[in-house]
Design goal:
By secondary structure, this protein is an alpha/beta fold. It is built from 13 helices and twelve strands. Strands 8-7-6-9-10-11-12 form a seven-stranded parallel sheet, sandwiched between helices. It is elongated, with a radius of gyration of 22 Å. This is 2-hydroxyacid dehydrogenase.
Length: about 325
């Protein structure tokens, strides 16, 4: 009997790849549970998901079964050994609960780098040049707002700090280097393959004190919740800008709003928020900020790359025993 693979969520762009990658080596079944209770019941002996060994997990499944928290992980069948998360950030999967059950978790690093980095680049350009408020002014038939020029700056010659020089942070550094800007960064350790124009700072506050812009590229884990808090925000130069395409909870939102209110921050460019899809109404009161509804990976090209990479991790698990993209907690 072929091993069973459960597709949890929508596959939009890689339907043919499901057949090509998984068809020859597995029996593919699709989620049709209406709620979490039904989902967990279907993993019991005799249920439609009984015997599933690998799960493709996509975010649209949340509306039916919720996130992959401890309750869900503990309730799925004993046969499950691999969860391929379709995304780079995997905070919606309780990895520790998976490890306790002997389940491996993979994500899709690399596939999202370019799209997320270009989103950060857009937010940077929009905030430093005040393009968002200018577009809104034009759409209101008011032409250019007179207060923009005193608040806008050239990007060339600025110092941009990158918090987390992983795949996305590195691609962002490559894009902004063309202007050119000074690129400085902090990661848990110095990145060995970083370009020579990326200056490493072991001390975060020393780095921030030299930065005109901070771009956040760290994953959301328990230890990174509120990582960019009052102290780090105030360490930035007065009139600084924060860009966030990582996860909303990495930044202390209230501390960030206070810094906008008193002018320590000139602007922020946000693609992510702590309680998506809800957006703190206070942020809407600042005309000079740029806000996007989590658009980082929203291109058909990137979404297909993500789907194929997640499917490939399952194929590799089934054929050679291990996928290539185990999340960091397994290293």
């Amino acid at each position: 009997m072929a091993p069973r693979v459960l597709i949890c969520g929508d596959i939009v762009w890689a339907l043919d790849d499901v057949k090509e990658l998984l068809g020859p080596v597995s029996e593919v079944i699709h989620l049709d549970s209406k709620n979490r209770k039904e989902f967990l019941d279907d993993f019991k002996p005799g249920g439609k998901y009984h015997g599933v060994v690998a799960i493709f997990r996509e975010i649209t499944s949340v509306q039916f079964i919720g996130i992959f928290d401890k309750e869900l992980i503990d309730g799925i069948g004993e046969s499950v050994r691999w969860i391929a998360h379709n995304g780079a950030g995997y905070d919606q999967v309780d990895v520790q609960a998976c490890k306790a059950r002997g389940i491996f978790v993979s994500n899709t690093p690399g596939a999202v780098d370019d799209a997320t980095a270009t989103t950060a680049l857009y937010l940077l350009l929009s905030t430093i040049r005040q393009f968002a408020i200018s577009e809104r002014s034009l759409r209101d038939l008011k032409w250019k707002p007179p207060e923009v020029a005193p608040r806008a700056h050239d990007l060339t010659g600025r110092t941009v700090a990158i918090l987390g020089l992983g795949g996305i942070g590195l691609r962002f550094a490559e894009l902004i280097h063309a202007f050119p800007v000074r690129v400085i960064y902090h990661s848990r350790r110095k990145v060995q393959n970083a370009p020579e124009y990326c200056e490493y700072f072991e001390n975060v506050e020393e780095m921030l004190s030299q930065a005109d812009v901070l771009s956040v590229h760290v994953p959301l884990r328990p230890e990174t919740v509120g990582l960019v808090g009052e102290k780090w925000i105030r360490a930035l130069k007065p009139g600084g800008i924060i860009i966030n395409t990582a996860r909303g909870k990495v930044i202390d939102e209230e501390a960030m709003i206070r810094a906008l209110e008193d002018g320590h921050l000139a602007s922020v460019g946000l693609d992510v928020f702590p309680n998506e899809p809800e957006v703190n109404p206070k942020l809407l009161e600042f005309p000079y900020v740029t806000l996007l509804p989590h658009m980082g990976t929203q291109t058909r090209d990137t979404e297909r790359k993500m789907e194929v990479r997640a499917l490939t991790n399952i194929r590799d698990f089934l054929t050679v025993g291990k996928g290539k993209d185990l999340v960091a907690e397994y290293s």
